[in-house]
TrEMBL record, chain A:
Keyword Disulfide bond: no
Name of the protein described by the UniProt record: Peptide ABC transporter ATP-binding protein
Superkingdom of source: Bacteria
Membrane-spanning ranges: 21-46, 90-111, 123-143
ABC transmembrane type-1 domain location: 84-273
Keyword terms: ATP-binding, Cell membrane, Membrane, Nucleotide-binding, Transmembrane, Transmembrane helix, Transport
Localization: Cell membrane; Membrane
GO biological process: peptide transport; transmembrane transport
InterPro entries reported for this sequence: AAA+_ATPase (IPR003593), ABC_Ni/Peptide_Import (IPR050388), ABC_transporter-like_ATP-bd (IPR003439), MetI-like (IPR000515), MetI-like_sf (IPR035906), Oligopep_ABC_C (IPR013563), P-loop_NTPase (IPR027417)
UniProtKB/TrEMBL annotation, chain B:
SUPFAM superfamilies in the cross-refs: P-loop containing nucleoside triphosphate hydrolases
Gene Ontology biological process terms from the UniProt entry: transmembrane transport
Protein name: ABC transporter ATP-binding protein
ABC transporter domain segment(s): 24-267
Region (Disordered): 1-22
Matches recorded under InterPro entries: AAA+_ATPase, ABC_transp_ATP-bind, ABC_transporter-like_ATP-bd, ABC_transporter-like_CS, P-loop_NTPase
PROSITE patterns xref list: ABC_TRANSPORTER_1, ABC_TRANSPORTER_2
Transmembrane segment boundaries: none
Composition bias type Polar residues, residue spans: 1-10
Family statement drawn from the similarity comment of this UniProt entry: Belongs to the ABC transporter superfamily.
Entry keyword set: ATP-binding, Nucleotide-binding, Transport
Key word Transport present: yes
Length: 659, 275
């Protein structure tokens, strides 16, 4: 139950949740509201009717007595309505006891330190294992039967659930950095609990509260039904039901009123609980809006001129007008056109959210659920076979899947997360060869050893029998590259393979990728946000911003600072360098980097003109209104800008961060 | 290993002021994780002095003990040997609640992930007010102080009323810096604070640090595996490997004329394009 905790680092989820209640929540709240209203007014309106003795006993349903009368001739409909107040009151009281005691216990267990925690959690576990109603029966039997005993019993029996949830949620929140930071500031444990932990676990607790209210109502009614709860002459629904049941065979309608009331109240509270849980789920998951009606009115792809004419014939990958769309029609990647030549390493440079990873995943047909790709053309070329269409809709044939698995190799960002920790390396490395290429087990192992040797992993034969955790981080990274290279793919897609690595391991990974490119002529699409790494490894660079391609240039030009697009220039200026050219010093002698003020637009809020215009130091009025034109002097080189190469304003504009 | 102390301020580049007075001295500190056969020594007798008004960059591969050293200095990890001197007082022996409180207020750690280090349910103002007074702090009571801290990290006063999710990663990291400054600590430890950020926003955080070093004479330990970033912000640099300090010196010396082969290896690996 972590629905209330916003996922770490998920930027899409950090926008404020929209305030819309689900249908379930509305029904539940309406039901509960009606019952509360009834509880308030019923004793005033029907109180006298409910206690008035009548001459006609055990009467069936009639116009005067809708639900008949009981053994003393009292109107059961009125009694049921009047009983709403004691039933709801007692349930609320018991839930209050359960939640207060439980949350306090769960909190104490956490505040009390490791030793108390170990003991406390075991005690809570044992209490949970004990059935609540049995516990309540025991407590009610020890105390004298009556509403007080029942409320205490049910409250005590319900508290372990709250204690366990509080302790578990607290443990997960307490491990997060902001709690650690507050501790280092000297914030005391009680204040830590009140300000940092409880607000962050409130949502799941609220859900439990309403669900627990439904349970409590049922349990209290059951105890009253058994004669342990409310005692005559007082009555609640459970008690009415018990009385009604005595004449079930002669006058069944007597039992209907309280029975229906218990069910309705329980359902309403459960609906509220489920509705709250669903709302919490929605507010922490990325918002998926209903499909916008006008999403397809102007297809930007068809507005972009076809630029695949000059692409060399031996290009491995040709992508034209690729778009990645959310279910609501928002384009996360918006009309990207590029190609990767044979033996070419093409870098994709961009910040998080720029669409670089989605572009690569669309090429590999590995888009996450809820997204789909369209393109005018997106093909993997192979001189010995047909072109493989990468965005064709419909189900994939076995042949397509085989070609995807063998012709595209993927190197993921996190090597430790992309191997299955429960399986030995050998099986995982050779899987593609055996499943898709029909290579024998022995031959597959031989090739795996050869490949591990190539990426300079020591003792490759023994490694095949090892589990991923037995390899160091750098070795895992190289093993993953070996795995991607094994089927001799035509294209390797490397998704930020160096981001999580320190400099020494990073250098190894880059060396291995370069060696593979030189040995097999493997084309590569290398995704990174690191200007230095891209400049080191790649032949050509695609710069992406806000889901669009803004510039294609050679790495030599990038390294020399000969970029044309203001965004590329800004990225270069914002990057500190290790080599001997120090950043420019300002009047105070400070070395200052040119920060880019503001932040990229969200995909559904892209301006009509250039997406970079609001942050651009060289902006002119036309940039805001009109989409920038594509200047493409040669295939594989382009810049999408109204004023390419204009950089004069870059140094003069004071940025937000530098005051 | 003999005590390695960075050279005096004479070798610094213009603009930064430093002194020879150490704010914190780490004296032969060793740290161990685990018990029995899993016992692993993470720090082997590390000696390091953090001089007032200077920034020491700490570099090394992952697993070299950088973060453990930071935790020893903050007091989250108790060393098995050696002393940690805060203004000539050995703080490793401090146990009492009041002493721990004092120590925690003297050394502040800025965590790596700006998305996890700010409470999503507290406004920025409340977060910073809590740093000013952890027992009774409130956003309205400390409004002026909060606004001053926000201004120091180039954020407007209106930021105080907003929640962390309304800010970008770079802005969040600046808020985390403001929170650390609000404590007025003798020493700030920045543990990989730029590695979770995109390059365009990383620059704004680095610029704020540069301005703070100039204006407040900040004493800082800056831990990072990004050598270019370390070179940009540091007066002095310490290179760490397998729990030992390999080389300590001014940034100009270590980057310009490294003495140790390991430092040279690190530099050549860390400068793509210069192959």
């Amino acid at each position: 139950m972590t629905a209330g905790l916003p996922p770490r680092r998920d930027r899409a989820a950090t926008r404020p949740p929209r305030k819309r209640l689900g249908a379930m929540l509305v029904i539940g709240l309406a039901g509960l509201g009606l019952l509360v209203l009834l509880a308030v007014v019923a004793p005033w309106i029907w109180g006298d009717d409910a206690d008035r003795l009548g001459p006609e006993v055990h009467l069936g349903s009639s116009g005067e007595h809708w639900l008949g009368t009981d053994a003393l001739g009292r109107d059961i409909f009125a009694r049921t309505l009047v009983a709403t107040r004691p039933t709801l009151e007692l349930s609320a009281l018991a839930t209050l006891i359960a939640s207060t005691v439980g949350i306090a216990l769960g909190g104490l267990v956490w505040v009390g330190g490791p030793r108390l925690r170990a003991v406390g959690l075991r005690v809570i576990d044992v209490m949970i294992a004990y059935p609540a109603v049995i516990l309540a029966l025991a407590i009610a039997a020890i105390l004298d039967p009556g509403p007080k005993a029942c409320v205490i019993a049910i409250g005590a029996a319900g508290s372990p659930t709250f204690a366990r949830l509080t302790a578990n949620l607290t443990a997960s929140v307490a491990g997060r950095d902001f709690v650690g930071s507050a501790r280092l500031l000297g914030v005391g444990p009680l204040r830590l609990m009140r300000r940092h932990i409880l607000p962050n676990i409130a949502e799941p607790l609220l859900v439990l509260l309403s669900v627990s209210y439904a349970h409590t109502l049922m349990a209290l009614s059951a105890l009253s039904f058994l004669g342990l709860g409310v005692q005559l002459p007082d009555y609640d629904w459970g008690q009415l039901l018990a009385v009604g049941l005595q004449s079930l065979y002669t006058n069944p309608v007597e039992a209907v009123g309280p029975a229906v009331a218990v069910v309705l109240a329980g359902l309403s509270a459960s609906f509220v609980g489920d509705g709250l849980a669903a709302a919490a789920e929605r507010s922490s998951a990325p918002a998926m809006k209903a499909k916008a009606s006008g999403a397809a009115e102007s297809d930007p792809v068809s507005a972009i001129p076809d630029r695949t004419a000059g692409v060399p014939d031996d290009a491995v990958l040709v992508i034209d007008g690729l778009r990645v769309l959310r279910a609501d029609g928002t384009a996360l990647v918006d009309g990207v056109t590029f190609h990767v030549g044979a033996g070419e390493i093409v870098g994709v440079l961009g910040e998080s959210g720029s669409g670089k990873t989605l572009t690569a995943m669309a090429v590999a047909r590995l888009l996450p659920g809820g997204l789909h790709a369209t393109a005018r053309r997106a093909v993997l070329r192979d001189p010995g076979a047909d072109e493989l269409d990468l965005v064709a809709s419909g189900s994939e044939s076995a042949a397509t899947r085989r070609r995807l698995a063998t012709e595209i190799g993927i190197v993921h960002q996190d090597p430790s997360a992309s191997f299955n920790p429960a399986l030995k390396l050998g099986g995982q490395l050779t899987e593609t060869l055996r499943v898709h290429m029909g290579v024998s087990r022995r031959e597959a192992a031989r090739r795996a050893v050869e490949q591990l040797e190539f990426v300079r992993i020591t003792d490759p034969k023994a490694r095949l029998r090892q589990y991923p955790h037995e390899l160091s981080g750098g070795m895992r990274g190289r093993a993953m590259i070996a795995s991607a290279l094994l089927p001799r793919p035509r294209l390797v897609i490397a998704d930020e393979p160096t981001t999580a690595l320190d400099v020494v391991v990073r250098a190894e990974v880059l060396r291995v990728l370069r060696a593979a490119n030189e040995r097999d002529g493997t084309a590569m699409l290398f995704i990174s946000h690191d200007v230095g790494v891209v400049g080191d490894l790649c032949d050509r660079v695609l710069v992406m911003y806000a889901g669009r391609l803004v510039e294609e240039l050679t790495t030599a030009d990038l390294r020399a600072g000969r970029a044309e697009h203001p965004y590329t220039l800004a990225l270069l200026a914002a990057t500190p360098h290790l080599d001997d050219t120090p950043s420019p010093e300002d009047a105070n002698g400070d070395r200052r980097l040119a920060a880019i003020p503001g932040h990229p637009p969200r995909p559904d809020e892209r301006p009509p003109g250039c997406a970079f215009a609001p942050r651009c130091p060289a902006v002119s009025p036309i940039c805001h209104a009109t989409p920038p034109p594509v200047h493409a002097p040669a295939p594989g080189l382009s810049v999408v800008c109204h004023l390419p190469g204009r950089r004069s304003a870059t140094e003069e504009k004071p940025s937000e961060a530098t005051r | 290993m003999t005590a390695l102390t960075p050279n005096g301020p004479s070798a610094t580049r213009g603009g930064s002021v430093g002194s020879d007075t150490p704010v914190m001295t780490v004296d032969g500190v060793s740290a161990v994780f685990g018990h029995g056969p899993r016992r692993k020594t993470v720090l082997h007798g590390v000696d390091l002095a953090l001089l007032r008004g200077r920034t020491l960059g700490l570099v090394g591969e992952s697993g070299s003990g950088k973060s453990t050293l930071a935790k020893v200095m903050v007091g989250l990890v108790r060393p098995v040997g050696g002393r940690v001197l805060l203004d000539d007082t050995d703080v490793t022996r401090w146990r009492g609640r009041a002493e721990l409180f004092t120590r925690r207020r003297q050394v502040q750690l800025i965590p790596q992930d700006p998305y996890a280090s700010l409470n999503p349910r507290m406004t920025v103002g409340e977060t910073i007010a809590e740093a000013i007074d952890p027992r009774r702090g409130g956003a309205t009571r400390h409004r002026n102080a909060v606004e001053r801290r926000l201004a120091q990290v180039a954020l407007g006063a209106d930021a105080a009323n907003r929640y962390p999710h309304e800010f970008s990663g770079g802005q969040r990291q600046r808020i985390a810096i403001a929170r650390a400054l609000a404590v007025e600590p003798a020493l700030i430890i920045a543990d990989e604070i730029t590695s979770a950020l995109d390059c365009s926003v990383r620059a704004e955080v680095l610029n704020v640090l540069t301005a703070l070093r100039r204006d407040l004479g900040l004493t800082m330990l800056f831990i990072s595996h990004d050598l270019a970033v370390v070179r940009h912000v540091s007066d002095d640099v310490a290179v760490m490997r397998h729990g030992r300090l390999v080389e300590v010196g001014t940034a100009a010396d270590v980057f310009g004329a490294p003495r140790e082969p390991y430092t040279r290896l690190l530099l050549s690996a860390g400068s793509p394009g210069a192959r």
